[in-house]
Amino acid sequence: MAKHLQLEIKKLNKKLLAIGDTVVEAIQKALAALEERREALAREVMEGDRRIDRGEVAIEEECLKLLALYQPVAEDLRFIAAVMKINNDLERMGDEAVNIAEHAVFLAQSEPILIPPRLKDMTISAMRMVQESLAAFVNSDSQVARRICGEDDEVDQYNREVINIVWKMMEKDPKTIEQATHLFSISRHLERIADHATNIAEDVVYMVEGKIIRHRAELPPR
Fold it and tell me: The domain that contains 182 carries what CATH number?
């Protein structure tokens, strides 16, 4: 039975990583649609969300089946528990990609507006966190995961800076208010993507070390 469980765990791992790749691609496409004003690409992201939703349900059902059939303990139990949580965060990231794509559609149909450079910096940081958190999961690397948790502060700071920049933009030119409000929202969605990446990193620490580090209780001092 133990051998069968390990085979099922390998399959589960593969399925989760496939969903992770799909989500990363969706986020990248949504951001490209925003920067390049490509409405068709944004709509592609919106239409592809069903695939992510179906994948999330399939993985959750598989996790529940393994728990019921094999009653795993120790590392195997932590792995399955982590997969269930990471699966949920990936689906929510997919939702955030759709939200960004919806704003990208509006902006592509509107008069061009300057995208603050800080929003691009925020994009780079958030995407790095997503990709590194998934790599930490693949490599069972709790040290990298802990570092990722600390990087969320950088994205939060970028978000505050973007908000200030966009406020000044609206004050200087009230005609930009409608488009600028979409930039506000996009910045918030990016911040949430980084939050989900942090959640994944925290789950990796639990999976590897058996420690729950939510609310920064176990993080090293800055």
Answer: 1.20.58.220
